[in-house]
Amino acid sequence: MYAIQEDPKIELIQGREIAMSPASIKHILIQRNLAIIIGSFLRGKKCQLFMEAAVVFDEENHFIPDLIVVCDPDKIKKNNIEGAPDFIVEVLSPSTRRRDITIKKEIYEKYGVKEYWIISPKDEAIEVYILRNGKYELDNIYHHFDEEDWAALNDAEKAEQQLSLKISLYNDLEIQVKEIFE
What pTM does this model have? Predict the structure, then answer.
């Protein structure tokens, strides 16, 4: 077995440098699936999708989210994004989970990221937060169901489930939850 040596990606979180561990294959597949869906939709539109672009919020907070959408071209610089993207996705990893759901979520809220998705590969779930009046509100939690789990639900439980979701910026982009986790 050979170890691959790469320079780690470094985030600056509240002034502390944090080295990021390599992502799992499931994490990478989720990121790729969303990038294909959203990237295809945005082709020819004003907003742009970026994967793992450095985002500079302030002197102490430079993050590398899994996916971002930026609609203000003035924020797009040669080597990073300066200021809050319109939309951010973080795919949870064991090493990043705590920061993604606490510190980073607070910074995204503080700087006005309009929508924030937290995706759990383990639970195959997506928490969607929408910024309303300067505070994040949990809009919904979407789950992917395999055939066995779906069959175990009764009709009332099935009726409650939403199997697709939209980015609040775009009413005409509907994403099937199962396509994210394929």
Answer: 0.92
